[in-house]
Amino acid sequence: MPRIKVTTKGLEAIVSKRHAERVDYFDSATPGLSLRVGPRDAVWHYMRRIDGKLTRLRLGTDDELAAVGRPDRKASFTIAREKVGEIEQTIAAGKHPKAEQARERAEKRESRERDEGRLVRNVAEAWKKSHLGELAATTQADYKRALAEFTEAHGDDDIGVLTRGQIKRALDRVKARSPSAANRAAVVIRLLFAYATDRYDLPSNPAADIKNPARQKIRKRTLSRDEVRILWKACLLAGYPYGDALRFALCTGQRIGEVGNFRRSDIDSSGEYWEQTENKSDSRIDVHVAEHARGILAACPDFGRRSPFFTAGRASDDEDDLDGRKMAGIHSDRWNKAIPRHIQPRISEAAKALGLDPITEPWTPHDLRRTVRTGLTGWCLGVSPDTAERVLNHSIGGLRAVYDHADYRPHVAEALRIWDAELALILDGKPSSRQQRADATKKVKRSAKVVPIRRRA
After folding, report:
1. 178: closest CA among 228, 128, 212, 135?
2. pTM exceeding the 0.70 threshold for the entire prediction
3. Strand, coil or helix: 158
4. Cα Dmax for the chain
5. In terms of CATH architecture, what is 120-199?
6. Which pLDDT tens digit goes with each residue over 353-402?
7. Residue closest to 390 by CA, chosen among 423, 364, 416, 421
8. Does CATH place domain 225-440 in 3.40.50.1100?
9. What is the distance between the alpha carbons of residues 221 and 362, in angstroms, rounded to a whole number?
10. Rounded to whole angstroms, how far apart are CA atoms 131 and 296?
11. Which is the CATH superfamily of the domain at 3-108?
């Protein structure tokens, strides 16, 4: 245990020298202060008798202390001597240095964990676990996409230092790509920051009054009867899977994402009902599979009971592990490319075959759902607006949601049978049931007004 006069050059020589075994070099200027140099590192210690027991107190590695002193141009041994002075003051105050060191380490660890927890990516994960489980599967997917984009840009930032301007700029980037996606992102960010404000003591909530960046335009597009004929024909030309999936959506009025996730195991034992449990409304609906819809399903290739009816490829490993499916359904986000690639090129050919003008006004898969809802009460006979809403699995609010728990399955089934018959009229190019009845009524009225002319005797 050599005792040395510690200098900057002497210390550099000792630390750089190769040591096969650990050697303690004691500072001649500070009793008890030593530098233990070994094969791997050099560590400063302070040897002190406390309560009659000789105790070795670790001060830190030579590199750590050198880093502490670097801003003030202090050598590592100077920092070590200062720490010895602090320890002596702790002892003089009646405290045990090791207990104080343990407390400081705990505080530092807690501070690091707290700082780590405040990173946007970690706050986002905590929020997802506490919030998303209560939402419908499709809503969860939308929220996760919005959250992933925000965390990709700010995941390593402390959520407490993000400004309103940074949030607005992040939303502007999303808006440039998709206004509706920007509005969903704004909803998610507001929820995220409200959660963080409550749990991480943020001084203020920069997202509290941020409005949706895009003005939401409510779509009113519905297809005319001739447009339905053309689209049906184009879907027949396009075939499986996209053409058949769109035709099935026209038969049932269900959301295209739900149609894309429709599995063979969702059909009941009678083969007449689609027991739909995974949907945006997060409520079960039994969708009657009428004649046109049954014909479409019967022509779909069978990839197994757990596989979807409409599939465009094999399931990923995660999907396969999740529910045993070998083939993946058609996710909603695939239609943006599928329609211009598979359906739109057949529109002109279909219109020409039917002797009609091609569809020129843009349409989306959701417009088919709106068309079915409009047709149920606008073209069909015998379907009430209330039943039409239930066909689409729309929630009925107000007091009725509290008191009305009747089984509307027969009403929904009958409405879909009526729509199936109306679809047959559409495809044959005939007027609607409502129009036919109106025409018949006018004819009866005209015939009733005919007064025979009597001749005088």
Report:
1. 212
2. no
3. strand
4. 154
5. Orthogonal Bundle (1.10)
6. 999 999 999 999 999 999 999 999 999 999 999 999 999 988 777 787 77
7. 416
8. no
9. 9
10. 39
11. Integrase, DNA-binding domain (3.30.160.390)
